[in-house]
Design goal:
- By secondary structure, the protein is α+β, with helices and mostly antiparallel strands.
- The protein has one domain: Nucleoside Triphosphate Pyrophosphohydrolase (Alpha-Beta Complex), CATH 3.90.79.
- 24% of the residues lie in helices and 29% in strands.
- It has five helices and 13 strands.
- Strands 1, 2, 3, 4, 5, 6, 7, 8 and 9 form a nine-stranded mixed sheet that branches. A four-stranded mixed sheet has the order 12-11-10-13.
- The model has no long low-confidence stretch (mean pLDDT 91).
């Protein structure tokens, strides 16, 4: 694992992003997850780009997310940060995160300023050791699903919507000791690794609002209800047209 912490002077980033850059040097994996790779186990290095931008002062900061294609063999249909496995020539986690983001969303790396590297996080279901790279979208570029075989959609999601208590609850899966946060926003159902990382970052960044952490729902039921709402919304819009 490479160096963890700020990549830039915290005073050189927008005020709303400064707390995350400043705190990045104080974090370890336990700040985000209770999971760690078993000693001697094989892990695959990967990176994700946590790209924060701001369309204008009125709309406030946002973060770039994508929804994976429903046809993928793993994590199909799930919402994620742009990212993926490391490749020879990436030169480290930052290079991996930028390459993957460009391949998946078409974002122009020239307008992206990496500002901090977070601790490597182990994802048990895939055995990936994921390094989140925080970045500031200094010069936003158009984004899209570059390859529909991999990415279903791409969205800039407002931080204000993520921290809205009406858009947050927790889920658990029957028979497992796991419980984690969910965000339902902009037609997206964000859970798992991505929601867990987002939840911690919202707290560290000073954005979090009080929400009902006691609202715990069954994952399968909550996901099915979400999908039913999306189908109904699409149907209503089609009918109006």
């Amino acid at each position: 694992m490479g160096e963890v912490g700020p990549l830039v002077d915290a005073d050189s980033v927008p005020g709303w992003l400064r707390p995350l850059v400043e705190v990045s040097a104080e974090l370890d994996s336990r700040s985000f997850t209770r999971f760690s790779a078993p000693e001697g186990s094989f892990t695959r290095p990967a990176s994700v780009l946590v790209l924060f931008g701001e369309r204008d002062a009125e709309s406030g900061p946002d973060v770039l997310l994508l929804r994976r294609a429903d046809t993928l063999g793993s994590h199909a249909g799930q919402v994620a940060f742009p990212g993926g496995g490391a490749e020879d020539g990436d030169g480290g986690p930052v290079g991996t995160a930028l390459r993957e983001a460009e391949e998946e969303t078409g974002v122009d790396p020239a307008g992206v300023r990496p500002v901090a590297v977070l601790p490597e996080l182990f994802v048990p279901v895939s055995s990936f050791a994921v390094t989140p790279v925080l970045a500031h979208w200094e010069k936003p570029s158009p984004v899209r699903a570059v390859d529909f075989g991999e990415t279903a959609s791409v969205a800039r999601v407002a931080i204000a919507d993520l921290v809205d208590p009406a858009n947050r609850y927790q889920v658990q899966k029957a028979g497992r000791g796991w419980k984690g946060p969910v965000f339902e926003v902009d037609g997206l159902f964000v859970w798992g690794f991505t929601a867990g990382l987002l939840s911690v970052l919202l707290t560290l960044g000073g954005w979090e609002r009080d929400w009902d952490t006691g609202d715990v729902r069954d994952l399968d039921v909550a996901l099915a209800e979400h999908e039913a709402r999306i189908v109904k919304t699409v149907g209503d819009e089609t009918h109006r047209e």
